User: Which sequence fits this backbone?
């Protein structure tokens, strides 16, 4: 990929876009001064890249036939056998298709990425394989993960295993559906606005969004560094805790990871929760889109915890209702600048950059019409905001997120967890083919008000199934102190052990 000096016309165009007014002589002068830069770029191009070694053999990814993919939840099936011993020995794992698995295709739900094959394993992939897991493929996800529904992926909608006319949730749609259907033991999801917890709630699985930075994001396609999370999705709380023990901890690459506090999580399973204190968050209920039956089911779950000896009290955090407003500039401008205009990574941070992905992904600019309506909407407004207002709203929103974190921390200083519905409703109907853009967008974002706040506050949040409404799962969300996933597992496991959630 040899770098050459720009032509006079190319340099003139660059100058104009940067607001410089250069005459022909100035352009020629600047071009002459650039020779050393060209030499440096070409020297870098000739140096071998510093990527971690890929150690476990694997089969190429093959897209299963429709008969073997009834929920459209698989993107490709592959087999990567791990070490054969360790905490995850005997466990099968599917990866959300934004997680890099060397030699196996990855499209992140978008036709613009179809054909890309990573040349590196994500850190979490290596950790699971070292722990004995067998990775069995990639799960279909939403187009660049920009949807809480399961209808924007380029390979078509992912179907809910409880009702194929309903959404499986998103953006980790295939991951939740495959765990709920019993096709895999465990899955990896990603969470920037709730994308682990929302599909887990819709499908009836256990999902953990860990504290920001606890699990390394290296080798997972970034959306926005401030809200990027990855974590476990499982059928049981015990498996979730086990998986997090394998995933957690710094890897030396991911700049999201600082001051990580890593503890064993499996000892929390079976722990006596009597004497713990849980705060029901008033503002987590009664949203405009809330189903009263869902709110009632989650309040009944709180009563069940009280029956286990947990002190349950109601608290108010008014700023919770502002959280979606605060999330918007971070999510919209951040994803546009980093994931799209930044070729997946952006600049100015110490991370492991997968340059093969950057090279392939930048081609979206020639195929932008193929992106989902949800991503187009986000990018259009973000670029407008950037053109008119610059980055001030992004910066102010990050500042306000610290105030939001402090509001949650103030309550959590006296309680072990906050409690609320994971999502305000059960799984919604999938939009019909040809549905209007307004419906497509509504079904992608109407379930976020209790999940997105904790992506910007960075608190750990666990969802566990807590009953059925209209024969569809309801999710109970428990939110804990920073780095205190263990307490959430103790409470979640105690609730899980108190009775079959499907008959609750």
Assistant:
């Amino acid at each position: 990929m040899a770098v050459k000096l720009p032509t006079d016309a190319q340099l003139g165009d660059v100058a104009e876009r940067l607001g410089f007014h250069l005459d022909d002589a100035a352009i020629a002068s600047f071009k002459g001064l650039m020779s050393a830069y060209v030499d440096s770029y070409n020297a870098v191009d000739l140096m071998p890249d510093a990527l971690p070694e890929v150690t476990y053999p694997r089969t190429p990814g093959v897209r299963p036939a429709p008969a073997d993919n009834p929920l459209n939840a698989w993107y490709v099936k592959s087999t990567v056998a791990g070490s054969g011993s360790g905490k995850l020995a005997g466990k099968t794992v599917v990866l959300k298709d934004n997680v890099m698995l060397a030699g196996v295709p990855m499209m992140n739900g978008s036709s613009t990425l179809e054909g890309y094959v990573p040349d590196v394993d994500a850190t979490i992939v290596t950790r699971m394989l070292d722990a004995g897991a067998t990775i069995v493929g990639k799960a279909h996800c939403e187009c660049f993960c920009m949807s809480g529904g399961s209808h924007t992926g380029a390979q078509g909608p992912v179907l809910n295993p409880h009702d194929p006319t309903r959404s499986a949730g998103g953006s980790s749609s295939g991951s939740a559906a495959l765990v709920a259907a019993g096709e895999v033991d465990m899955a990896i999801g990603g969470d920037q606005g709730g994308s682990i917890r929302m599909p887990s709630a819709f499908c009836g699985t256990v999902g953990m969004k860990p504290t920001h930075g606890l699990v390394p994001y290296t080798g997972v396609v970034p959306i926005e560094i401030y809200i990027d999370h990855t974590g476990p999705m499982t059928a049981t709380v015990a498996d979730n805790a086990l998986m997090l023990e394998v995933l957690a901890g710094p890897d030396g690459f991911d700049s999201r990871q600082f001051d990580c506090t890593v503890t064993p999580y499996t000892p929390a399973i079976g722990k006596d929760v009597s004497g713990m204190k849980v705060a029901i968050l008033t503002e987590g209920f009664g949203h405009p889109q809330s189903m009263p039956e869902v709110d009632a089911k989650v309040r009944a779950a709180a009563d069940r915890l009280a029956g286990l000896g947990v002190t349950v009290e109601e608290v108010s955090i008014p700023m919770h209702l502002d959280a979606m407003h605060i999330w918007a500039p971070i999510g919209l401008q951040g994803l546009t600048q980093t994931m799209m205009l930044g070729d997946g990574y952006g600049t100015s941070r110490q991370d492991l950059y997968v340059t093969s992905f950057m090279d392939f992904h930048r081609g979206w600019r020639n195929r932008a019409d193929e992106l989902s309506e949800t991503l187009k909407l986000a990018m259009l407004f973000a670029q407008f905001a950037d053109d008119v207002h610059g980055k001030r709203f992004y910066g102010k929103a990050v500042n306000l997120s610290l105030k939001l974190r402090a509001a949650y921390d103030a309550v959590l200083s006296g309680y072990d967890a906050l409690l609320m519905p994971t999502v305000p409703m059960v799984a919604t109907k999938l939009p019909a083919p040809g549905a209007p853009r307004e419906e497509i967008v509504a079904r992608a974002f109407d379930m976020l008000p209790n999940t997105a706040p904790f992506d910007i506050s960075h608190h750990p949040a666990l969802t566990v199934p807590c009953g059925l409404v209209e024969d569809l799962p309801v999710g109970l969300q428990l939110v804990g102190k920073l780095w205190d996933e263990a307490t959430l597992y103790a409470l979640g496991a105690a609730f899980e052990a108190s009775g079959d959630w499907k008959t609750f």
